[in-house]
Each structure stands twice: as C-alpha cells, then as structure tokens.
Amino acid sequence: MLPSPSRLRPHDELFVPHARPELRVVPRQNRVAVLLNANAKKVNESVRRSLGQLVPTDDLFYCHTIEEAEQHCRQILDQRYGTVLMGGGDGTIATTINLLVKAADRLGRGDFRHALPDLGILRLGTGNGLANMSGAGKPAEDIARLMSGERPRAQPLRLIEDVESGWVYPFASLGYDAQVLNDYVDLVDSTKTKLGRSLAKTLGGYFWAIGSRTIPTELRAERARVRVVAKGRASILDPETGEEIPLEADSTLYEGAARAVAMGTSPFYGYGMKILPHALRRTDRFHVRVSQASISYLLSHLPSLWKGTLKTPDFVDFLVEGAEIESSTELPMQMAGDAKGRTNKVEVRLHDRCFRLLEGTGTVLD
User: What value, to the nearest 5°, has the Cα angle with vertex 252 and ends 247 and 254?
Assistant: First the structure.
C-alpha cells in the first residue's frame, strides 16, 4: 500500500538536523545506582545478598512504594549519578523511566547538572522487551562489569509520549496484541493454585490465553475501522524493498479496517518477539505498524513474525514524529506491557527527552 505521488515529499526535506538531547554537555560523576522494586517476585533474598556484595550500600535503592521510588529518583538525579541500573519487567522499567523524567523536569529542564543518567537494564522481569533491546545478560555480570569501571557501548533510547496523560514508554499498541495482554492477565488472576499461576506466568500461558480467549473474542468482535493521521513529518516504508518514502507532513497515513496498531522506539515485546523491526531505523522518528492480519495468520507464520522478518500486504509500516489514531470502536490498549483500558482515540508523539541505553553482557539483538 504505497501513497499517491501527490502525497510524497521531496527527499531534501527528509532529514532535518535537530539537537541531540542524549549527548553529554557537562561530565557527571562516574557513579552507578541500582534501583529495584522491592516487591518484585524476582528480587528475593538471594538477589539481595548478591547485590549487597557487589554494590555499595549508598548506591543501592529499594522501592517499596511509588512515593519511595519518586524520592529515590530525585536523589539519584540530585547526586548526579552517571548510570542507573533498573531491574524488572517492561512495565516496572517504564514507570521508573517516567519518574526519572518527571524528577528531571522538576529539578530544571535547562540545568545540565540534572541531565538524565544512562540506563542499564537488569533481566529481572517477565516482559523483557527492553532487556532484549539492550542485550541484558545475567544481572550479577552486568552489575559487576559496570562497578569495575568498564563502560559498555550505548545507543539512544527515544520514547513515545501519550499526549493526554504525558506518560512515556518504549512501545505500545491498540487492538489484538493488547487484547492478548488483557487475556493473559485475566488468565493468571483467575488461576487459584500456586502451581497453576507459575505455569500461567510463562510463554505457554500467553499461547493458552490466545487460544482460549483472544481468538474467540476476535471472531465475535466487530471489525474496527481505523484512521491514522501524522502529526509532523512522516514516511512510509515500501513493503518489498524497505525503502523509506517521505510523505506530506500531517497527512492521513491510513484509513480502513485494521486489527491492531503498534508503535515503538524499541523493536521488542517480551520473550524477544521483534514486533517493530524498524523502531531503531532513525532516532528522530518512531515506528508505527498498522496490521490487518488475523491472529490465525500470524500464528501460522510465527517464526518469521518472532524474528521481525515477516512480510505481508497486511502490514503497513510508517516512521513518524507523531500520530493521532482514531477507531470506530473502542480498542484495548497497552503501554510497555501494562494494560491501559480501552479507547477509540489516542495521540502520541516523540518525547523530547532522551536516554542512553547501555548494552548488556548478553547477546545484543539489534
């Protein structure tokens, strides 16, 4: 699905230089903070003992409440830590990122003393999209490397902002993949036994939720008509060649039946599933994918979908600065793996803050 020539923009308008907020202007202290959710299941006594041997007490922050997390984020910025290591799933990490951004804004957006620290991800969650993006390895090995003074490579981590709420996140979606998340959470919550819950909280639990709940819901549901309008600059990717074709600013990108709209600056969902393979293509845009494909079709092409190599006319891919998405019916929505209810309209844009994401000791999945 390529645009008509009247909607194309000249190539000389495609790349416009902007300030790079992830570049450092004022050096900071080479200190590493480790910030963890004390209530997380994987932050057990064994993990605490291991961290106590690797991390100085003053640099180890456990959060029991949101209020305590906010306080720790302000302290980390005020003391100008160069790096923060965060452990947990994507939802926990997204919450921490939002607290750091808000703390930096309160301390002074124009004050370079409170620049955002580099981020390292510790693989201590179930949904590990950002851990896969960074190539996080064993938590103890990632921590020990940084504590030794070694500086791993880093890549920019841009974020998407929900205009209405101001919440920022590395990926989100409307439609059936958000429905899968809702169905998975319901499955886990409805499982009463300890063994059953342990089994439900696995990749198999996701597939059980898809087969027993999501697919039946999709078969009964009214097919939504979706309209996606660019906010700012945008381009479409040729489905065969991958060529980026610039479009007119603020143009209608898509209008018609759709089952899902995914967006992100990170390619990965949990378990290494590469849903947004073009998310790292540019640092001044994020990837929006409109899907008309049925769940049964995607399941029948699961290996290539998982690797991000699936090509189908049912996918339409864009790189945008912002977008407004409207649906004829309310669709489930998720942000960074956390369910956010249902909506028929959302406006998103590239957030102006930017982190640097440190590569882990595992295999980097670029």
Answer: 100
Predicted TM-score of the model (pTM): 0.85
Residue 182, token pair as written in the block: 């809702």
Question: From CA 180, how far away is CA 339, in angstroms rounded?
Answer: 10
Q: How many CB atoms lie within 10 A of CB 143?
A: 21
Contact criterion met (CB below 8 Å) for 264 and 171:
yes
In the chain, beta strands by DSSP E: 29-37, 60-63, 81-87, 118-122, 154-157, 160-162, 168-169, 171-175, 225-230, 234-237, 244-247, 252-257, 260-264, 286-291, 315-320, 322-335, 338-350, 355-358
All CATH 2.60.200.40 domain ranges in the chain, comma separated:
165-350
pLDDT in tens, 12-66: 555 555 655 555 544 555 789 999 988 877 888 888 888 889 999 999 999 989 9
- The DSSP secondary structure of 322-350, one letter per residue, reads EEEEEEEEEEEEEETTEEEEEEEEEEEEE
Alpha-carbon distance of 150 to 88, in angstroms, equals 23
Rounded distance, CA 145 to CA 152, Å? Answer: 9
**Low-confidence residues of the chain: pLDDT under 70:** 1-29, 109-114, 187, 189, 194-203, 206, 219-221, 363-366
CATH 3.40.50.10330 for the 29-157 domain, yes or no: yes
Tell which CATH classification among 2.60.200.40, 2.40.260.10, 3.40.50.11540, 2.30.33.40 matches the domain 165-350: 2.60.200.40
Find out whether 123 and 135 touch, Cβ atoms under 8 Å.
no
Return the residue matching tokens 């369910």: 339
Q: Give the residue range(s) of CATH 3.40.50.10330 domains in the chain.
A: 29-157
